[in-house]
C-alpha cells in the first residue's frame, strides 16, 4: 500500500483505531516504510514520543528517502526547542 492509500484507509479513525489498523498492515508487510511513518505520526499524536521516533527510525532504515526523514526532523526540532527568555529572565 502507498502512503496515500494507507491514509485513506485510516481516515476518520481515532488515533488508537488507526494504530490497530496499521499494526495489521505491518504484520502482513513489516517492511512498509509508509505504514511505519504513519503509525509514528499516530503515536506522536497520542503522546507516545519514543514509539513515534522508533517507527520513524525503522522506516528510514528501510527506505532512507522515506517521508519519515521529514517527520523525524520535525520531531527533533520540536524536542530541541526552548525559549531562551524563559531560561534567562
Tell me the major beta sheet.
none
Q: What fraction strand?
A: under 5%
Quaternary class: single chain
Distance between the termini: 51 Å
Order of helices and strands: HHHHHH
Shape: globular
Instruction: Give me the Rg, rounded.
Output: 15 Å
The helix content is over 70%
Secondary structure layout plus pairing:
Layout: H1 3-9, H2 15-28, H3 33-45, H4 49-62, H5 68-80, H6 84-87
List keywords for this structure.
89 residues, 6 helices, 0% strand
Q: What would you note in describing this structure?
A:
The structure is a single chain. The mean pLDDT is 90. With 89 residues, this protein is an all-alpha fold. It is built from 6 helices and no strands. 73% of the residues lie in helices and 0% in strands. 30% of the residues are buried. The protein has helices at 3-9, 15-28, 33-45, 49-62, 68-80, 84-87. The radius of gyration is 15 Å and the shape is globular.
Amino acid at each position: 500500500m502507498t502512503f496515500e492509500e494507507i491514509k485513506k484507509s485510516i481516515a476518520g479513525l481515532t488515533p488508537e483505531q488507526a494504530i490497530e489498523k496499521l499494526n495489521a498492515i505491518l504484520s502482513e508487510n513489516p517492511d512498509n516504510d509508509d505504514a511505519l511513518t504513519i503509525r509514528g505520526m499516530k503515536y506522536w499524536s497520542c503522546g507516545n514520543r519514543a514509539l513515534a521516533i522508533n517507527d520513524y527510525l525503522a522506516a528510514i532504515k528501510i527506505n532512507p528517502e522515506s517521508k519519515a526523514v521529514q517527520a523525524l526532523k520535525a520531531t527533533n526540532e520540536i524536542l530541541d526547542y526552548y525559549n531562551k527568555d524563559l531560561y534567562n529572565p
